[in-house]
Structure formats: C-alpha cells, structure tokens
Amino acid sequence: MKSAMKQSFDPDLAHIAEKVTAGERLDFSDGLVLDRTQDILALGEMANIVRERINGNNAYYINNRHINHTNVCVNTCKFCAFSRKEEDDDAYTMSVETALAEAHKHDGEDFSEFHIVGGLNPGMPYEYYIDLVKKLHDDFPNTHIQAYTAVEIAYFAEISGQTVEKTLLHLKEVGLGSLPGGGAEIFNEKVRKKICPEKIDGNAWLDVHKTAHEIGLNSNATMLYGHIESAEDRVDHLIKLRNLQDQTNGFLTFIPLAFHPKNTKYGDLPRTSGQMDLRMIAMSRLMLDNFPHIKAFWIMIGEKIAQVSLSFGADDMDGTVMEEKITHSAGAETNEMIAKNRIERLIIEAGRTPVERDTIYNVVSS
Ligand code: V47
Ligand code: SF4
C-alpha cells in the first residue's frame, strides 16, 4: 500500500500517517495535531491520498445559480455583513415573481441547480418561503432546488407553528431537493453565543439535518473558520458532523467557509491565510472519513487556492454561481461567476479530470 507520508519534519504526524495508510479513523487528539502542524506538505499529502481513495482522479463542479432572495434578517450575527433591518435603505426582498424573473434571465443556459439562501425576514409569511420553492419548481421541474439552511428551516417551523419534520415534508412536497450546509458556523456553545447569539444552537442545527436525512433529503455541512474559534472548537465541530453522518449517511459534501471580516463586527480581524485555507481543506478530508466530498468554495478562498486545494483533499470546486451576495458583502474580491470552461481549465491544470455533476453527484453529460 502507498505510504501516507514520504517524509515529514513533524514527528507527531508519524502515527497519524500510519492510521491514514491503514484506513483507520482519526480521533480528537489527532485532529489537534493536524490543526497545529506546520508541515503543510505532509498534511496535504495524507489528505490527497484519502481524496484519491474516495474519488479517484475526478474533480467535480456544478453549473448552478445562486439566489439570495432577501437580506432582511431578525438575527444579528456578528460575522455577517449581508443582513439588514427592514428600515435600512439597502434592505431588499424579492417578490416570488421577481425571483422567478431573475431565474428566467438564465433560460437556455444549461444549469442544473438553484442554490437559495437568505435572511429570516419577519415581514414575510411562511407561505412566501413555500411559494418561492413551489413556483420555481413549477417553472423549472428538472432543476434541483437546494434551498434554505437549517437556521431558515427552524425559523419557518417556528413561524408556522409546525414541527421541523412537517415543515421539511411540506417543502419537499412543493419541490425542495436538498438543504445547503450554511448556518453551522461553529457548534461550540460559548463561541456560538458570542458570534451569533440568536441563532439555533449546534444541537438544533444537527437535528434539522438529521430530520432532513430521515425523510430522504440530502444536505451539505459547513464550518465557518478564521474568526474567534479555537483549534479544539474546529476539531469538535468536525467530529460532531462525522457522528451524525455515521447515523444517517445523508451528508453529501463538507465545505469549510473562510471568514471574511470586512463590514462585520469583527472588521479588525485579518483575512484567513492561504496556509489556513489549505489546512482546513486537508484536515476536513482526513477527519470526515465518511463524507464523500470536500468542496473548495472558490468564491470564499479564491480560484487560486481552490485550484491548489485539489491536491490537498478537495474533490469539488462548487459551481459557476452567477450572483453571490453573502461573501461579497463581507469584502470578497472574487468574481461573482466563473465560466464553465474556466473551472474546467483550472481542474485540468491541477491534473484532475473535470466532471460536471448535478447536486447529488450524478454526472451531467454535456
Ligand atoms: O451560514 C456569513 C456564511 C453561510 C460570512 O451548501 C460567511 O454548498 C464568510 O450556506 N464570511 C451561508 N462566511 C452560505 C451557505 C453556503 C455557502 C457555500 C456553499 C454552500 C453549500 C452553502 O455563509 C452562513 C455563514 O456560515 N457567512 N457571513 C462572512 N462574513
Ligand atoms: Fe441572518 Fe444568516 Fe446573516 Fe445570521 S448569518 S444575520 S441568520 S442572514
């Protein structure tokens, strides 16, 4: 069997490399070593071996369209530069008709997914959120709708007086295909209370995803890193996700989200470094041994690091995106869209085989 590490200057990695070679699960203390080692090449090499074991030479991408239907939100998460109060000049809420018109602007372009995430707008009734999915599904029956984070789902359950399960079943009935991974942030309660005090807690986030998986909806998972969390918090977050995946096997992809501080309450913090971004990709590939895919979201880490991350554990570059407001409100300097042939070129240059996929990783043949 291929050795998990040719040489390393960090002796603490030796027993982890043995476990990786043997396909054994890494524990909390191994996770801390991965989070702290300065031997980024050895870390990357181990993650690359696991990536190859699970996904061969394929690197996936999707032709998708993001819709951020409203920036009005009852919550005041300190890391968020996107949300507004109703009275703010730049607050917006798309009517269902406007969202449909936006979606139809891309008629004729061969996209396979709508990715829909927005604020918790207290001015809109439960029916608005249902209608948005229903009308999009009526107009685009063959396009997968990945909509609403667990935080939004819990909010819809609250305003409609239903259980989370009933709410998810209703959304599924009108066309919801899967849940995006946002809202997970960091599960550690102390940190969570500081960065997003009003948000559902980590257990509630995990419960929404568990319920979704139980009724046959797949979902993604994320972790927001590079703010005030510690190495322990990051490893704990990954292990909680891995435990749920052991139970349900409903997660498709994990996406580490690099914190963008501009225009947030943490505006004084620096942007994450390339070393940190690659470390999070590699560490998540190694810890999340039961997740089929690790996504490098180029919108957040930039095309260049996303491309290199294909050799550090990532097997997915996300998509063409089109319009993205959440990270761009917080100072992202990346484009809001990327052409399909550019994603393919980045992947080929990295030595991988580009594979266009749909949301649930079926191959889309062009
Ligand atoms: O939950 C908010 C994050 C998430 C900032 O499932 C920020 O494939 C960085 O759900 N800097 C929403 N991140 C986005 C989301 C998502 C994104 C990409 C892929 C997928 C997927 C889902 O964006 C929020 C929060 O964690 N976020 N503000 C910020 N300043
Ligand atoms: Fe609202 Fe989501 Fe921003 Fe928090 S991260 S303030 S829940 S839009």
Main features:
single chain; 366 residues; alpha/beta; TIM Barrel; four-stranded parallel beta sheet; three-stranded parallel beta sheet; 14 helices; 10 strands; 43% helix; 13% strand; binds ligand V47; binds iron/sulfur cluster
Protein architecture, described:
The protein is α/β, with parallel strands linked by helices and 366 residues long. A 4-stranded parallel β-sheet has the order 5-6-7-8. A 3-stranded parallel β-sheet has the order 9-1-10. The protein is built from 14 helices and 10 strands. It binds ligand V47 and iron/sulfur cluster.
The gist of it:
The protein is α/β, with parallel strands linked by helices and 366 residues long. The protein is 43% helix and 13% strand.
Lay out the secondary structure:
Blueprint: H1 14-22, H2 28-36, H3 40-55, E1 58-62, E2 64-67, H4 96-104, E3 113-116, H5 126-139, E4 144-147, H6 150-160, H7 164-174, E5 178-179, H8 189-195, H9 202-214, E6 218-225, H10 231-248, E7 251-258, H11 274-287, E8 293-294, H12 298-309, E9 316-319, H13 326-329, H14 340-349, E10 353-357
Parallel strand pairs: 1-9, 1-10, 2-3, 3-4, 5-6, 6-7, 7-8
Helix pairs in contact: 2-10, 3-11, 4-5, 6-7, 6-9, 9-10, 11-12
Bound molecules: ligand V47 and iron/sulfur cluster.
The site of iron/sulfur cluster has 12 residues, from loops.
How would you describe the shape? globular
> Going by CATH, what is the homologous superfamily?
Aldolase class I
Number of domains: 1
Q: How many strand units? A: 10
Termini separation comes to 36 Å
Average pLDDT works out at: 94
CATH topology descriptor: TIM Barrel
> Order of strands across the biggest sheet?
5-6-7-8
Which CATH architecture? Alpha-Beta Barrel
Number of helices: 14
List segments where confidence is low: pLDDT < 50 over at least 5 consecutive residues.
Answer: none
Which small molecules are bound? ligand V47, iron/sulfur cluster
Rounded to the nearest angstrom, the radius of gyration is 20 Å
Residues in helix, %: 40-55%
Q: Biggest sheet, open or closed, and with what strands and sense?
A: 4 strands, parallel
Approximate strand percentage = 5-15%
Sheet/helix structural class: alpha/beta
CATH class: Alpha Beta
